[in-house]
């Protein structure tokens, strides 16, 4: 009597399923309840994401260009390319947004098991693989009429509860008199499982920050921002501020001696496939055409502030406004002075910048590594049919 696929050991069945494209996995979920349970298991979701992450190259790219008619053309696209950068394709995603009223770059955070957070109005979560788009509900935590001096956002995954969370740090401005303003930080967090916002119990440390790091900084269950620790009224220290998505607590990470802060600006980014963090000590923008070198520091032991090492030096290369972060195999992405997306490979003996033939307005290009994913945004708690919809692309 012949054997069937059901006779295979579960570990082998998982390996077979993990090699199938998302559209085939969706069909498999409808065939057998056993397959449905495997594919919906959070461990399989992570395994599947990691398999495709290690075997495919792609990015989500957000930017805009000013048209000849004086309008701004905002776009979010899926960029696919091979390791040599020769075979390139760009697919525009048709999200259910009012594009005519969006006049700035879509800030993308992710991937987190293939799910991305869009820091726009309305805020949203998307899974490009499943073409799912979920608008987040409004928060009613801050009192009506509260002014915000600054807002920092972060996005990550709580593996303990299988939940995706968005955290926001808000600098609240409250006028005690017409002439004085009192500032304080408040943090709130959105849970996909609960589909609502609530205030974070842990107090935000005294910081002074305007983080400009464009890379997605979720590492080891924590999201990260560059910040200035307020030691006293006259003393500040540059640190990395982290927020643990499981325990929902803040932590300050001390930096190594990175040099003269008058000549450089630090950016935090994930490193080594998001197992640790790196700080890119980037030179301040110089005259056009100027060539400079800069250092990349890596934290070898994520939980040890004393484990920073200078991993490598890049350059000299022509200074560009902002490094966009690391991609697979620790390739570093930039937008050059002509608005083109380029990649620098530290393992390339020729040390060349590869042109990926993607353009955008200067300093307004946002990238995120693309990750194929079966993780659904559906939780059965959508209060409006407009909150969770599908899109084309």
UniProtKB/TrEMBL annotation:
Pfam families (alphabetical): F-box-like, FBA_1
Domain F-box residues, every copy: 2-51
InterPro entries: F-box-assoc_dom_typ1, F-box-assoc_interact_dom, F-box-like_dom_sf, F-box_dom, SCF_F-box_component
Name of the protein described by the UniProt record: F-box protein family
